[in-house]
Structure formats: C-alpha cells, structure tokens
Design a protein that fits this description.
Blueprint (H helix, E strand, L loop, with lengths): L2 H9 L4 H10 L5 H12 L6 H28 L9 H29 L9 H13 L4 H11 L3
Length: 154
C-alpha cells in the first residue's frame, strides 16, 4: 500500500488526527514526517541513520517552503477578516486547505521515494521517537506513543 493511501486510512482512525495534530501543534513536530515514520516502520522499510537524516532534511525543506506557509494562511483566515464577506473568505480558505493537503501529499510522496525497500523494523512508536528526535532534538515520548497507538490500534 502506498504511503499516501495508508496515511489517509490511518489518519481517519479514531483519535489519530487529534494525536497527530497534538504532536504537530503542541510539540512542534512535522506531522507528515511522523506519519511517514510510522508507515516506514510498519512496512519494515525503516532507513539507516543517513536515510533518516535525508528524510528529515527533505521534510524540513518542503515544510518550510510550502506546508507551513499554506497552513499559516489557512489558519489566519479562519476567523472573519473585515471587510471580506464571510462566504468568500471561507471559500478561499477551503481552496488554501486543498493546496495545503496537496503540499503534504507531495511531501509524503517524496519521503516514500526516499524510503529503502527493506530495512530494520522498529516499532512505530520507536520510529516516531527517532524521527521526532532528529526533527527537533527531542522526542515527546508520550505524544509519540499516543500517535503510534492511534495509527496502529491493537
């Protein structure tokens, strides 16, 4: 199963979206990178240290160039912005949301292309912690464990 197809399926699982957004918004992590890490571990395609660093560098670059700016615009225009009519503002917000999702999909496709065909198989929680630690220097253990539990329910 492709990463994108798995991500859509996994993100729809109960509590997964909330756990992912918590990791992103409260802990400053990259949600697409976290989803990729859980998928790569679950698929037995976990990269070596150099591969993980390359994936984080790719995520950091695209996140800064496209995903975060789009997310920022979407969030800033969530509330009314006079004198723009609410219906017009909300229509634009939905368009930005669609483009933001396309940017996240492009990041996930890029990460999938960087993923080796076979490798170590850490648990999804361990993979999330490793990716988060490379992303920010520290891994929020409880948030990583919660997201792993939501993406891979027992």
């Amino acid at each position: 199963m492709s990463l994108w197809a798995w991500a859509l399926e996994a993100y729809a699982r109960p509590g997964a979206a909330e756990a992912c957004l918590d990791l992103q918004d409260r802990h400053g992590q990259c949600a697409p990178l976290a989803i990729w890490a859980a998928w790569a571990a679950g698929a037995g395609r976990w990269p070596d240290a150099a591969g993980l660093s390359a994936a984080v560098a790719a995520a950091r670059s695209w996140n800064a160039a496209a995903v975060e700016p789009l997310r920022g615009v979407r969030r800033r225009i969530k509330a009314p912005v006079p004198p723009v009519a609410d219906a017009a503002r909300e229509a634009l917000r939905e368009q930005v949301k669609t483009v933001e999702l396309a940017a996240e999909r492009l990041l996930l496709e890029t990460l999938e292309a960087l993923t080796p065909p076979a490798g170590a198989r850490p648990s999804p929680a361990e993979a999330l912690e490793a990716a988060c630690a490379v992303w920010s220097g520290a891994a929020p253990h409880a948030a990583c464990a919660e997201l792993a539990r939501r993406l891979y329910p027992a």
